[in-house]
Structures are given as structure tokens and as C-alpha cells.
Amino acid sequence: MLSELAYRGYEQRLQSAENRSDALELLLTGPGTPMNEYFRRYWQPVCLSEQLTDVPKAIRILHEDLVAFRDRSGDVGVLQRRCAHRGSSLEFGIVSEHGIRCCYHGWLYDVDGTILETPCEAADSRLKQTVCQPAYPAFERDGLVFAYLGPPDNVPKFEMLDAYVQPEGTKLVAFSNEFACNWLQVYENLIDHYHTAVLHNNMTVEGVDAALAAGASFGGGWGELPVIAWHPVHDGNGMIFTAGRRVSETKVWVRMSEMGFPNFCTNAALAPSAARQRHSTVAMTRWQVPVDDNNSIAFGWRHFNDEVDPDHVGREEDCGVDKIDFLIGQTRHRSYDEQQRVPGDYEAITSQGAGGVAIHQLEHPGRSDVGVYMCRTLLRDAVRGKTPPDPTRLLSEAGGDTLARCTSDTVVEVPKLADRDADRALIQEIADKVLAIMKETEHVPSAERRKHVLYRLDETDGGLGPFED
Amino acid sequence: MDSARSKTETAVDFSVRLARSGLLLPVPHDRSIVEVLREAGIACSTSCEAGLCGTCKTGYLDGTPEHHDFVFDDEERKSFVAICCARASSAVLVLDL
């Protein structure tokens, strides 16, 4: 006998593909929307330093056409693209010693948008005192160009994390990855950690090239289905997952990655070594920046150091404009045939929904999706102004120490219990303990944090022994 | 942040009363309302059982629920609970069942 759910295509074919208003509240980022304003309250990456050359770079961020350039004195400008004079695009402007000159009638704008010259006008022209090219504050750091697109009387300090300078010798390498889809579904991918044990675990058509298949999987302990929990952090201004996996008879690997709303996240290690290292922290920092509602760009840094990648599997030279060095399938530059045979994050994410926008009410979530729904709920609270200010942001405003984050991979000595369910409950207990230790570090001086974590881990399990296998 | 959504709170005992039959059923800290209802032979529609889909949406008439779902808005929460994951801070939660 057929299930009552069998062959229901005809009945379900006309289901509404429209998002409800509470979903649109997060998905729509155009001018005047609450999300647009929310994004504008934070420094956002807008392009890579290497894209600022002797010609201007046309960019589109939050539905706004802009031009970015580095003038010949080294100052960075982010201006609206259309010249205030007669509307020519400043992407055809000439980058000058100070500012940028429109090609049409030569108006010269400084990086702050004030007019330096209007060559066709008489000397007594009042234009310089009355007109400007709309501009935004900008700066460069480690290969990323950041702009602040919000109200000028409320410019936040750029939040400095421990991970930008620790461990010693850390190198940040900038990248961008362009996604032909809405920002939110890419951002949610971080907190949707179950997929790493599926999509990134030999999810390939039989017979594909072995190197290609290997490049689409993390290997190591990643294939083990984790025990996951999700928690809001920083008074609801962010959230984390903890993912515990049994990696040997005596050892459990606990991974955490963290979101900072609206669109920032830090990922732990992107290498198999994560499952056998005592403790490492951030391997990637990312901002998912809306271009418009159907396109977004992941800008960020890959973090290179011996702690987070002891085997040096990461490749700095493969990180840059629209490219990244981990897992095949992160970017749009593949043949359709390869996309089908070796699907990756790009295929799974950009194909959600219609026209690049996920349709939330057509989803059928299960218990493994609590993280995604918690993320949406917290974001909705935040964009509605229900969330108190982030205490760590206030700390950052006050200056001083770099900021702690929970993002980490940790291996803990925990002998396996014979009963699988009991063992999984034990793994969750261990994950909670590691999380508590990571949270403690917020109250420890930055320079002492790693030492503190290692000390508390040793206290918890008596020290990490050798792997028996 | 709505503290009711934090999963770290300890689930405490409370009871549900079914308005139509008057039946009073205790909900132990490690059982959901749905589990208790089903054990009493009352059919409940559920799907995700994690407070995400809203299939188990049920009206309540009295008592103070602790909402642990991620799907209802403030207005809906005034009269409905997701019985797959909701708890109660009052001793009794009266369900419109």
C-alpha cells in the first residue's frame, strides 16, 4: 500500500513560493530596509586592496553603486559612483595625487568627497562650498578595504580580535568569494554544521577523478556525525555551535565556530589536523556582504599559522579575488558537469530557493536545524532593536585589549563509553566544559588566554595522551 | 535576547490541563508535552519536534508558557504554544484541547 505521502507532486505543485514578511525582514537588504540600516552600523569589507590599482574599482555594496580607489598619496576613498556634477561614472575617473578626477569636466574630489577643483568654473564659483560627492570613511587592513556606510556621528571602532595577531606569526590573507544568491543562506552555512559530515564527506558521483573527490572532502574526523548544540553569545549579538565528535577510543574533538551579527563569523580550522591537535583557534574570518538581494560576497581573511594548520595544507597563493584555498566547490568557476559530479558549498547554497533567495516557509526543518532557526530568531530580535548592545563591542569602543572568541578546535582525553547514546551524552558534556573554558577567557588578559585554556584543559582531563591509532 | 529561548534553563515539572476533558497530566522535566499527551492516548500532529515548523501549534487558555520555539511571533505567543518544546513557569498550563 502506498504511503499517503507518495506521489504528492500534483497536490503540492502550487504551494506558494513567496516568503512571509518575517523572512523578508532578514532577506531584503535594499535602501530603507531594517537590514540595510543594520549592516551600515558596522565596518564592512567592500573590496580587496589588490583591486585598488592605477584605475578605480567599481563596486556595488548594499544595493549602492560605489567606486573605490587609492589615491597616489596612499589614501583610500569610497565614493558614490555617479559624479555629482553631471552623473558620469567615476569608474572612468582618473586617480590623482589627492582624490579622483571625473573624466568629463575634471571635477576633482578628495577621498572625503569634498571638491578640490572644478576647472571649467570661474574662480569665484561657490560649488566647492556647496556641493560634495557623497563619500564614506574607509581604511585598509591586511589586504581588505573596509568602509563604514552608516551615520557619520556614530562611527564604531573596528573590532580587534585576538585571532588577528595571535598566535605570534599569524598571517592574514584577504579573499573574496562571490555568491549568486542572497546573503543570508551563505551566512547560515556556518551554523548549519551538520552539513560538514555530509556534503564535505565523499558526496560525489561514483567514478569521479580521485584528486577532485579528495579535494571536496575534509577527511580526518569530519565524516563522523557530530553531537551539536547551539548557544547565543554576547547577549544575543552572536551565537556559536559546539560540535563534539568521537575521534578515537580515548579522544573527543570539540569544535566551535562563532557568528557575530549581523554578518560576521569566525571559523575554526579548515584542515584534518583539527581532529588531533590539543587546541587551535581561528582559521578564517568572514563577512557576508550583500551586493543586492540576489548576490552577495564573502570577504574575509584566511589565517595562516603553525597552530591552526600544522601540516601546512593551506595555500596562501590560492586565496584572493574570488578564490579560496579550502574545499573544492566554494566558488562559481566550475563547469556544470563538475558541479553536478562533485557538488560543494557553492552549489548547495546558491541553489536554495528561487532566483538565489531561499524560501523559508517551504523548508521542512528537523532537530538538526535548530541552529539555523536560532540564528534567524536572534537576527530578527537584533534588527528589531530588541537586543542590548554587544558588551564586547562596548569593550572595543573603550579601547584596550584584543577580543576573545570561542572559535576553536580542541581535543580532550575522554575514554569511550560502550553504549553509543551514553557516549554521545558524554561528548556533549565535554563540549559544554570546553565552551565554559573558552568563555572564561573573556575575563583573562589577551596575552594569557591560550595559556589559561591549556591549563584548564589539563585540569579537566589530566593532559592529552598520544593517539593510539 | 528572549531568555525563554535559551536551552540552558533547567526544564522543571509542571502539568497540563486539557480544557475539554478536564484531564490533568503532569509533565516531568525530561518529557515534552507531546510525549505526555501521546502516552495518555491523545493524538498530536508533529513534524520537526524542535520548535521550528509549527505543526504542533496548540492554543492555550490559562497559565504561563515558556516558549522554546523559533517560529511564532509575539502575537501568536499570546494564544498559542508549540507543544513539542514549550514548558510552563506556572504550575498548570491549560491547553485548548
Description of the structure:
The complex is a heterodimer of chains A (469) and B (97). Chain A has 469 residues and is α+β, with helices and mostly antiparallel strands. Chain A has 2 domains: 44-154, Rieske [2Fe-2S] iron-sulphur domain (Rieske Iron-sulfur Protein); 162-461, Alpha-Beta Complex (Naphthalene 1,2-dioxygenase Alpha Subunit, Chain A, domain 1), CATH 3.90.380.10. Chain A is built from 12 helices and 20 strands. Chain A has helices at residues 9-12, 21-27, 34-39, 127-130, 183-191, 210-215, 336-341, 345-350, 370-383, 391-397, 420-440, 449-461, and strands at 43-48, 57-61, 64-70, 76-80, 94-95, 100-101, 108-109, 115-117, 135-136, 138-141, 144-148, 171-179, 227-233, 238-246, 251-260, 264-267, 279-280, 284-292, 295-304, 408-413. In chain A, the strands form 4 sheets. In chain A, strands 12, 13, 14, 15, 16, 17, 18, 19 and 20 form a 9-stranded antiparallel β-sheet that branches. In chain A, strand 13 (227-233) and strand 14 (238-246) form a beta hairpin. Chain A is globular, with a radius of gyration of 24 Å. Chain B is an alpha+beta fold and 97 residues long. Chain B has a single domain (3-95), classed as Ubiquitin-like (UB roll) (Roll). In chain B, 11% of the residues lie in helices and 27% in strands. In chain B, a hairpin with a 5-residue loop joins strand 1 (14-18) and strand 2 (24-27). The relative contact order of chain B is 0.27. The chains are: A alpha+beta (469), B alpha+beta (97). Chain A binds chain B through residues 22, 229-232, 235-236, 364-367, 369-370, 373-374, 376-378, 381, 386-388, and chain B through 1-2, 5-8, 47-53, 70-71, 73.
